[in-house]
Amino acid sequence: MRRLSSRLLLSAAGLTLPSVAVAAPPSLPVDDDAADTAPETTGADSLDPPEDGLMQPEFPGEGLEDLPPGESTFEYDAETIGENDDDLSDDGPNNSDDPGLVRGRREAMSPIAGGGIGLFHTSLPEVGGKYTFRFRLGTDFFSKEGFFCCGNDVGNDAHSRVRGGVDLGFTVAKWGEIYFGVHSAANRNERDAAARQDPPTVFALGDMNLGFKGAHRFDNGVGLGGQIGLGMITGSERLITERVNFNIDGIFALDLRYLTDRHAPVRFSTNIGWMLDNSIKVVDWRSISDDLSREVLRFAMNANHSRVRTRYAVDFPFRVGKDRQIGIDPFIEYSWDIATHLEPAFEPLTKKYAASPLPRSQSWLTVGVRANLVDGLFIDAGVDIGTSSPNYEFGPPVPPWQAILGIGWSFDPKPVIKEIEIESEATELPMPVLDGRIVGRVTDATGTPVSGVLVDFTGLSTNSILTDSNGGFTSYRFPAGAVTIALTLADGSVVEHNAEVEANLDTQVNIELEGAMPEEEAAEGTLFGTLLDSSGAPIKDATVQVVGHGLDEPFTCCDDSGAFGVRLPVGEYTATITAPGFKSAITQFSVSAGDEGNSFTATLDADSTPETPNIKASKTRIRLKKSLRYDNDVVDPSSHPILDELATFLKYHPEYAELEIRVHTDDRGKPAKRSLARAQSVQAYLATKGIAADRLTTVGAGDKKPIAVNLTVAGRKKNNRTELRVKGYTGEK
Length: 733
Known about the structure:
Layout: E1 20-21, H1 32-37, E2 72-75, E3 101-102, E4 105-106, E5 133-145, E6 158-173, E7 176-190, E8 201-217, E9 222-233, E10 243-255, H2 256-259, E11 267-276, H3 291-300, E12 307-315, E13 318-320, E14 326-339, H4 347-353, E15 361-374, E16 377-388, E17 401-411, E18 420-423, E19 435-443, E20 454-457, E21 464-466, E22 472-474, E23 478-479, E24 481-488, E25 494-501, E26 506-512, E27 524-533, E28 542-548, E29 551-557, E30 563-569, E31 571-578, E32 585-591, E33 599-604, E34 615-617, E35 621-624, E36 630-631, E37 634-635, H5 640-651, E38 656-664, H6 671-688, E39 696-702, H7 713-719, E40 721-729
């Protein structure tokens, strides 16, 4: 049987024989007479265009048009566009389909106090543009008569508080940001009380927060994220961290700007998390004997209790201006904290001044607005309205109102893209170089066309041309002048012929070979095939079994475009095409001499994956819902069905490229030998079901890693187990 000679024929322009061109360039424009006298040829006119769809000019200046005066074009004032293009869409720098883009950059965003990007108290599943830096200077304040207590013993107290801080944020990746903040507070409480133990003015200076937030917004407007943070509490006497808080939060949002056709400026957000708050441990509260002094000092030092934190918000982010350069975002938030820690030292105040209907709850409503005025500058203002305070043993009271003010800037390193209209200058195109081609025909002494002759043009081209079945060929374009044509015959001999190329014409050349032609080898042709799935995507891993003319051999293919090429003797063939995950297909084709007309495209239908309900797989392990049983050192027949199901799973999931069969046993007999024999028995059974041996490895773990004691029957049963570990996972099915 003759061996099938196969090779993949790849090039940048298409599939051709190495260093052999099966055709010549497109024809020059010719008059009707020239067209009538030209012989039938197979040349470069049949070449497919380059993959990018752009044809090169046939001579300098060809294909260009003068741009009339007054026409406009655009240029960018940034020298390098694309270095920071994570946020640019395919539609250009001013993509109106993305409401979150402003002149090619993400809209400016502000951090919340002690956290990442958000409103006032609610974090958003946004991290800003990549490598953007943000800061916000914020303050809040309130004042209230009778805030802590009222009564005949001390009279009403008057309390006021001012807090301020700076919050910084930096987007380290398109899905994550880090944040840092420093905050301080000043409290003053005025009251007449002889037993007072707290100073009238208390400062809490230099409390710090830092953390990381990861988030992603999907195309449908759904945003998901999470954040973790630390808080370093300094106390009131010195700027040294005395306690550390920890918080973790989940973040969710639904942005209707991306979900609705008219980009409705409505966004719903929620956070839920928990804070381990150790600020309550900064002071030994039992050392303060006066109940009211103890409470005033706790509030002034921002001490609180560990708690569950929930935030609910709706905001209305819209942009105005010619270029949407001004952003306005009014919003409403509801914050609800539920204490998980009780501090007994504060219980006497609850008994003295009445309990709260929601003993563990701190809640407040926030109404605010934020405006992005110029570039990255934003200002905001709002007010918190207290809705419930807890019992004193569960936390400090909530202020009845609190005004909030802030100003900040978002720095984006991405250059602002501007469109500048310029007038183009009329350019006079150079005159084209006049050239022509050789259109020839090769015959023997009897006038019979000679096909398969290699045609070269000495000193003008490095690519060869094959004469077609009519002996014809068409050259590339050459400048007008003398050309030497070199013909390489089947026996390797070379015949030269001289011709004169005329400008802008096809020069007709008939070359007659003297003497008898050497005996040619059996005629062959090149088959070009393309394999696609039902969606039109290329199939890269397939086997083609070719049968015909004494051949019955398989070969593997294809390249990234699903294409392949193979040399075959002239004749009729049948091919059976198989590929993992697809139904096999049978096609018939004919191969003629040369490289033209021998092509086909086959479409394979996806093979439905059988159900394997007892197999559960991950990237590291495959678990069987039914344990394997063994009869001494071989697999028990009762376990054949589960192994059959495993074999089916592996056949339809080639991404599990290598599987390790690791068998453990109890300590009886020779554990190492027995476990290895069992592993090899599983491997052998799977091999009989068509699983390639190079995908399976075996390990006899013996009794080295027991999971139970071997003193009981139940313990030994647990120790006799089989693990399937994934050692090679490609991730591509």
